[in-house]
Design goal:
Blueprint: E1 8-14, E2 28-29, E3 35-36, E4 49-55, E5 58-67, E6 70-76, E7 85-86, E8 97-99, E9 109-112, E10 120-125, E11 135-139, E12 147-151, E13 154-163
Antiparallel strand pairs: 1-13, 2-3, 4-5, 5-6, 5-8, 6-7, 9-10, 10-11, 11-12, 12-13
This protein binds zinc ion (ZN) (2 copies).
Length: 166
């Protein structure tokens, strides 16, 4: 059955073209060109990287997701602009509470997301110290791919959802 749908697509916008990728940088470039996070932390410095699931060989990012009375573990891909995740599925757009699986605190609110009124992007930090101002802002609306990456206070990338017909 062929159903024509207005399929949304994501676009990765690059802001800082002079970012120095290295074996030490907080954002790294995979040998195939994709960008990924080598490490991730909550605002209290807890490591979110896990060996429980790997994505193309790289460790995933473990999050505690609270949906009403339900508590689940979801492991997200460390690649930027990659929506793969392991764990339960919720209806698209469900507003969930994203938490650190160690301290169980809600990840910090950064800025509103444009996908829905009241949806915020939450901080996954690139270093154990939030004062380093390196973070990925991920949306708390389930399935929303929109996010951004900054490092040293500079906006590096933004993933935007756009209407596409392909
Ligand atoms: Zn924590
Ligand atoms: Zn969103």
């Amino acid at each position: 059955m062929a159903v024509r749908k207005n399929i949304k697509k994501t676009t990765l916008v690059e802001f800082e073209k002079s970012y120095q990728f290295s074996d030490e940088s907080n954002v790294r470039r995979h040998h195939d060109g994709r960008l990924y996070l080598p490490s991730a932390y909550c605002q209290n410095g807890h490591k979110l990287m896990t060996d429980d699931a790997r994505f193309d060989g790289l460790r995933g990012i473990k999050l505690l997701v609270i949906n009403g009375e339900e508590r689940h573990i979801i492991i997200a891909s460390p690649f930027i602009n990659d929506q793969r995740k392991e764990g339960p599925n919720f209806p698209e757009g469900t507003k969930v509470v994203l938490c650190c699986p160690v301290c169980q605190e809600e990840l910090e609110q950064l800025v509103p997301c444009t996908c829905a009124p009241g949806a915020y992007r939450r901080a996954i930090y690139l270093t154990p110290n939030p004062k380093d101002i390196g973070a990925v802002g991920v949306c708390e609306a389930f399935g929303c791919p929109q996010s951004f990456v900054n490092d040293n206070g500079e906006l590096l990338y933004e993933v935007e959802l756009t209407d596409g017909d392909a």
